[in-house]
Design brief:
The chain has one helix spanning about 1-15; strands spanning about 25, 30-35, 40, 50-55, 65-70, 75-80, 80-85, 90-95, 105, 110-115, 125-130, 140-150. The chain is mostly beta strands. The longest helix has 16 residues, at about 1-15.
Length: about 160
């Protein structure tokens, strides 16, 4: 019995150490690029703070966008978006406003949301996250943060994503 149990235990131990491999893409130029996360610290004159991330999704064709804020008015609803550009230089909402679930603050003024966006996480460029005064896209920006790569390494912009 011990002869069977030891190899089985070793196999389970090894399986527990296996991690999901990093997602990579091959660009149209043939470069292989590792997909990395982006993060932003959000700040506002009103005291609202938070963090936002863009990270590789379940496949190389998805991006997981998440946000968490503190200091909002209790039970307030806020729209939020990831944009192309930088705070103060908005070049457009990534995918469009319909892709984002609103932030709904709890009784302590904390809120979080996450959405899966239908594109490969960027490998290059300038991006930011904004939080709006209400649940409407047209309401003013009350908090903003520029996204930066978590593990900044050089690489080409995505031209064409292919399976590894």
């Amino acid at each position: 019995m011990l002869r069977i149990a030891v190899p089985g235990l070793m196999a389970l131990t090894l399986l527990g150490c296996v991690q999901r491999p990093a997602l990579v893409i091959e660009t149209s130029t043939g470069d292989v690029v590792r997909l990395e996360s982006w993060t932003a610290s959000l700040s506002s004159p009103s005291g609202l703070t938070g963090t936002a991330t863009l990270a590789p999704g379940a496949t190389h064709r998805e991006t997981l966008a998440t946000i968490a804020i503190t200091g909002a008015q209790p039970r307030a609803v806020h729209a939020w978006y990831a944009h192309l550009g930088t705070c103060g230089r908005d070049l457009g909402i990534l995918v469009g406003p319909q892709a984002y679930a609103s932030l709904v603050a709890d009784d302590q003024g904390n809120a979080h949301s996450s959405v899966t966006l239908p594109f490969t996480v960027p490998t290059n460029g300038s991006y930011f996250v904004s939080v709006r005064a209400s649940g409407s896209e047209g309401s003013g920006v009350i908090a903003c943060g520029n996204l930066n790569k978590v593990n900044a390494v050089g690489g080409p912009a995505i031209a064409e994503a292919r399976s590894p």
